[in-house]
Structures are given as C-alpha cells and as structure tokens.
Amino acid sequence: MNVFDAVLLDRDGTLIEDVPYNGDPALVRPMPGARAALDRLRATGLRLGVVTNQSGLARGRFGAAQLELVNARVEELLGPFDTWQVCPHDDADGCRCRKPRPGLVHAAAAALGTTAERCVLIGDIGRDMAAALAAGATGILVPTAVTLPAEVAAAPAVAPDLTSAADLILRRDELHPTGPHRAHTAGTVLVVRPDSVGDVLVTGPAIRTVAAAAGRVVLLCGPRGRAAAELLPGVDEIVEWPLPWIDPAPDPVDPAATAALVGRLAALGADEAVVFTSFHQSPLPTALLLRLAGVGRISAISDDYPGSLLDVRHRVPPGVPEAERALSLAAAAGFPPRPGADLRLRIREVPDAPERGPYVVVHPGASVPARACPPGVSARIVAALAAAGHRVLVTGSTAEKQLTAEVAGSAGVDLGGAFGLAGLAGLLAAADCVVVGNTGPAHLAAAVGTPVVSLYAPTVPFGQWAPYRVPLVRLGDAAAHCRDSRAAACPIGGHPCLAGVDPAAVVAAVELLSAGRPA
Description:
By secondary structure, the protein is of the alpha/beta class. Helices cover 34% and strands 15% of the residues. A six-stranded parallel sheet has the order 8-7-6-9-10-11, sandwiched between helices. The two termini are 29 Å apart. It comes from Dactylosporangium vinaceum.
C-alpha cells in the first residue's frame, strides 16, 4: 500500500533553480533529474503538489500574471501538478500560510483529498521541514548551497537530490505491500515487543494489522511496557516477562526462570509469532525460546544470520520510522495493511480529561536520562509559557514528584504522580500541546493526536523516533556531539543538546502549533 497519498514540493531551489523574485519564465531551469523523478512518483499513483512562498508578490517585485507565467513554464518543463498552493505574503504579514507555518501543507492536502500526515514534503531549507513537521507530514530535505548545516542536522530525512528523494519515498512504499490477505484467520498469533512504553506504542499500528487477520493476539511485553500494552487495540491477552537481553538493567540469566517462560509460551498454543525489535536489538534470543516452546512459524527483522530460528527473516534499511519498520515486518509475515488502513498510533479509547482546558502540558522527565531536558531549563519553559498566558500542567511519574515540583514552581500546576498512563492519555488528549523529550509520553501524545513540541536529544535518529504522524516542532541542538551515540546518560558535560533551548522558542512553537491547525 502507499504510505503516502501525495508528494508536495517546494518550488525554488527544489524543483527549479532559485532565481530570487523571478517573474520571467525564460529564467526557469529545472533542477537536475527533476522531470524523471517526478514521473516515477506519478507512475505509482502518487499525486503531486507545489507549496511555495512567493513574498515577491507582497513586495511588488512581480505581479500575479508574471507568477502564473513562471508556474506555467514549470509545468511545461516538469509535467502537471495536481495542486499549486502559493503564499503571496511577507513575513511581517502574520499569515497562516507562509512557511514555516503549516497552512500551505494543510491546504494542499485538502485540495488533493487527503490529510497532511499522508503527505511528504520535499524542500531545500529548514522552513520547508518545519512546515512539514508542524502539519504532521513527513519531510525530506534536499540541500543546496544555501541550506544551513543546522538545517541539515535537524531534518527528519536528507537526500542529495530529487532522484534520491524519490527513491526514499518509493522504498518506504515498497516495505508495505498490499495483500493478498489471508482467506482464513491465522489462529493465535504471539506478538513480541519487550521494551518500554514508547516502543510498545509505536508498534501499535503493526499489531493492529496482525489482529485484523488473527483469531487471537497475545502480546509478550516487559514490565516497562505493560501499561502501554494495556492501551493497545487488537491485543487479547498480555504476557509480562522481563527479558535479560532487552532490559537496560537486567538481572542475571536464571535457567529456572527461562524454563518457566518457555513453559508459559508453550501453554499459549500460538500458531506463529512476530518478534518486533528496535533497530539496535537482536530478535534471536527470543526466537530460540519460541522454538523451544514449539512455535511453528517465527518472523523477525534480523541482520544477524538466524539459522533455523526464523522462518521469515526480514530486513529494513536504516532511517525508516520505527512504526513503519514494524509495519513492514507485519507485512513480510503475511499481515499487510489493508488499503486505506489508518497507520497512525492509536489507543483503545481516550479517557475523559481529568483537568479542564485549555492548557499546555510540560513533561520534563524521560525514561532515559540523556533525553531529559535539564530541570532548570524546563522550569524556565514553564514560567515563559505561563507569562504568555498559558495554563501549564507539569506531569511525571510518582518517582518524578520532586522533579515536577521543581519544574512547576509557582507558575505551573504540579501533577507529578497524579496519573497512571491511561489518565495521562486523557490529560494529553485535551491539551493544546505537550512539551516533552524523546520518551514514552511523546508517543502517547501522538497516539491521542496532540501536537508535540519535541525537546529532542539527538542520541537516536530523529527520523526514526520522532512522534509519528502528529504535528510537531523540533527544538534542541541536532548537531550536538552526542548525535547517534545511543547514550543512556549524557556523555558530554552540561547536556548541551538541550541546555540551550530558549524558552521563548518553546512559546513560539506552542503558538505555531496552535495556530497551524486546519480550520
């Protein structure tokens, strides 16, 4: 199936060479490989649109008729586009459409009969990527000489040219073939995701595709992911067990406990199993236990040679979002998404909000310390949001009550330890926005459709772990030296990737996300 319905493209510097304030169609020069790349996308059924800032109109550098002539020349050289969305304003006009605001993306999606989260936007500067993310769309940056290094570092995906950008889009589609669907139910299917809350939540769409063809779905999870497992649609039974090759602070391997787990799995009578893992984990220890438990068919992603442990050995290129990585495994195992399937994160039901709105949630903690914003910075963010007129609720677990009290101070409402995960889901669902690091509540916000200001420590790739298909703004130093280190504790003194976050930038991000929602 198509992961995307439409591809949106910036005009100047992406489709054609950037000639400042160009009103002359004779100066239109396509970027190398543009026509061939666009035709490949068209051939797959993807619809194409242009989203372009043209402040030259507001500044009187050219007229509407000249703009139409230039755009007509673009189509003459590059083929037809299904929609053109043009912002005629200058920055000072305060419009909703000028990138980095997401208005053009929402307008293009509506014109194409889809939604922003099913669009990918290709552009050459940070404004393009910011507009894509703020709309909930996917962004691919194709840098040029004017692209700033910081913009490259912060982009969710980077391609050297339009040809490569098209390759990325088509490769992600190829990972999710549609059907044939099973003519009969698959019986009992054991799905495995033994990580933390966020890991379990991002696997939810894949588990739903399995459940659509299975008679019964049993989820094997760890203690850290149990609360999220209880929220997932499609799960009929949960088996909770700590796995020493997964948990970050594991107990020693206990032969008796391992034998007990094998017995528990055998008692399930599972017809097959799908073992979901993160990109840095091996499924093979789990697969060995499943073989000992008598599971007849086992599917997993594995770069390591699996011998006879796997029946379906799937491989996924780096950089694919974790939710799509899991979906591709489900498809390889024989559980492809149905055409038009909802690929967003979801929970069974959204509880009623325990607080009355409007409000912004700030969640300062993180399950991995390297990904948490420094408490002092979080406290200044709360104070700045409150000064801007927002009611600010500060959330955290019972173990984080000292942190939430410090961060809330006198400006925010301290709700540390007040809710379990289900209660937090209700609180987030009614929030205008949540300010949070790369941790479970960020993915919970995505699962209830709440925009996210992501204070993102770059220890793991943003393109893989950003909140999936939800409007967001990324803040933090994307080029910090901890980038891609997978560090659990900050390896650099002073936590520079998040210590420099400007509270005013957080206020601006909240306002951008609030103003950017489609009418």
